[in-house]
Amino acid sequence: MTVKVYKVEPKTENNQNVLDVKDGGKPIDATQSTTIVWYLDSDSGTFNAIDGSATSGFRWPTPPGSTAGFGTPTLAPGGQVLTIVDAAGADGTYTYQLNATINGTPYSTQISSSPAGTIDNPMIKNN
Fold it and tell me: Do residues 29 and 127 lie in contact, with contact meaning Cβ atoms separated by under 8 Å?
C-alpha cells in the first residue's frame, strides 16, 4: 500500500477563507491501494468533525459509487490530520471537499466550475 501525504494551508483569497491543498494543482493519483493523508498547517485550527454535513471535515460533494473503493474518512486526535483509504476500486476522478475552523473562522476547499486553480476542485484520480 502506498501512502501519500498532503499539506493543507489556510489562506484568504478574493476575500474568502480557503484551504489550499498542496497537490501541485493536480488530482491525487491512485493507481493502487493508497492511504491519503491531509495535514492542516495551522497551530490554531482543526479540521471539522466528520459528520456528513455540508461543513464536515471531509465530504464528497457528489459521492462516488460503491465500486470506487474508498474507506471511511478518519480524523486523528487533535483534529489536524485526516486520512482516507483509496482501494482504487474503479477508474474515475472524484472531487472532495475539506473544511476546517481556524481561530473560530470557517475555511474550506472551493468547489467550482473554474477550469484551473490551486484551491478549486481538489480531486482524487483512480486509474
Answer: yes
Number of domains in the chain: 1
pLDDT digits (tens, 9 = 90+) for 38-68: 999 999 999 999 999 999 999 998 877 776 7
pLDDT, tens digit, 9 for 90 and up, residues 64-95 = 777 678 999 999 999 999 999 998 777 888 88
Sign of CA dihedral 18, 78, 49, 121: positive
Distance CA 62, CA 20 (A): 20
Strand partners, 108: 18, 99
Which CATH number belongs to the domain containing residue 116 in this structure? Answer: 2.60.40.420
